Amino acid sequence: YPSEFLMQKITEDNQIPVHLHVSVSLQYVAGLKGNALVEFFHGNIAEVENEELRHLMWSSVLFYKTPTVEVMACVLLSTKAIYFLLDDSFIHADEHQSDFWNKENSDCENSSFHLSCCFVLKLNDLQSVNIGLFDQYFRITGHSADHIVTCLTRDSYNTHTFIQQLMAVLSLLARTPSPEPVDKDFYSEFGSKNTGKMENYELIHSSRVKFIYPNEEEIGDLAFLVAEKMDGLTNLQSLNILLYVLAFQVNHVEGSAQNTSSLQPKTLILTSSDLFLFDEDYISYPLPEFAKEPPKRDKYQLADGRRIRDLDRVLMGYQTYPQALTFVFDDVQNEDLMQNLTLDHFGE
Fold first, then answer.
1. Does the predicted TM-score (pTM) go above 0.70?
2. Distances from the Cα of 142 to the Cαs of 45, 127, 150, 160, in angstroms?
3. Where does the Nischarin C-terminal PH domain lie (predicted)?
4. Are both 4-173 and 217-329 of the same fold?
5. Are 181 and 188 in contact (CB under 8 A)?
6. Measured between alpha carbons, how far is 167 from 183 in angstroms, rounded to an integer?
């Protein structure tokens, strides 16, 4: 340990997405290669001497306690825990949740050190992993509200790779098996539950961590919600969701030093007749077992919706992934303009 293949893979994965800005401390981490990266992990992050770094991924993350603050993180998976190396701007992002983070090091703020928070979720505390629609994100759940984190990968490949690596690492854990039932009957004898199995889109791993995948009902609920937003103009049977993707809406900030643009996280949903942007709650649903009341906001909140027939043109940027698309719509004030003209000109 570590093998050359692992060193090469971790070095390749250690790249901050170009459209996201991070602090100086995380830029330093992103500049590390190969052996320097592994040494940095063991010297600064690892909690146990004999743990191995298995996977590295850059992703936006959300915490259950701060559901509106999305922060960039370097996610490190080892044989003992999942580490989230966070952008230090996160500490000041939400004053109401300041008690969530330990402020002991605040006296170092003015020194030459660049500090980062590191949030640790031990694999032994892991209870379930919820995979989002079309593998655009996944939520890791521990035993309390402090131990729920959503990784917004916005990329099915990154999600799939991380889940595979996590399953492999969990297989190494020695967990005590579930207690056997006292009276063994015919059904429990032949219906062994020790092996990994699919149960209602729920894979129970041999480490007893649940991997929960979305079922058809979620798409059905989403289609119903979209139809509702379309004022019932469409027959639900004929409504097909063609595309669901986590994206950013670009808002240009004028008057700043440089003509910068802020990125607002949105869920883009395309149907055969409309294009929708939703504000989605990626972390509160499905409700964790300890939740006493439903979340303050709905899972999907409509931010914008336009008809495809009003789409005038689509402008495509020339840069590589992530691609920028600009949708230009005809700004027709009255959607049923022709119908009204007909009534005006040809009587009742």
1. yes
2. 20, 5, 12, 20
3. 241-347
4. yes
5. yes
6. 32
- Find tokens 């894979």 and name the residue: 203
Tell me the fold of 217-329.
Answer: PH-domain like (2.30.29)
Task: Give counts: helices (H), strands (E), the chain.
Answer: 7, 16
Structure tokens, 206: 């041999």
3-state secondary structure (DSSP) of residue 278: strand
**What type of residue sits at position 295?**
P
pLDDT digits (tens, 9 = 90+) for 60-75: 999 998 898 899 999 9
Nearest to 138 by CA among 57, 225, 53, 68: 57
Indicate the fold that domain 4-173 takes in CATH. PH-domain like (2.30.29)
The predicted-structure confidence for 125-143, as pLDDT tens digits, reads as follows: 999 999 999 999 999 999 9
For 266-319, the pLDDT digits (tens) are 999 998 888 999 999 999 998 888 888 888 888 999 999 998 999 999 998 777
- Which secondary-structure segment (H or E) carries 95? none
Q: Are 123 and 82 in contact (CB under 8 A)?
A: yes
Model confidence at 79, pLDDT cuts 50, 70, 90, reads very high
Q: What is the DSSP string of 138-158?
A: EEEE-SSGGGEEEEE---HHH
Would you kindly state where each structural domain of the chain is located, as residue ranges? Answer: 4-173, 217-329
Q: What is the per-residue DSSP string for 48-66?
A: STT--EEEEEEEEEEETTE
DSSP string, 294-333: --SS-SEEEEEEEEGGGEEEEEE-SSSSSPPEEEEE---S
- Tokens in use for 190? 């032949």
- At 289, which helix (H) or strand (E)? none
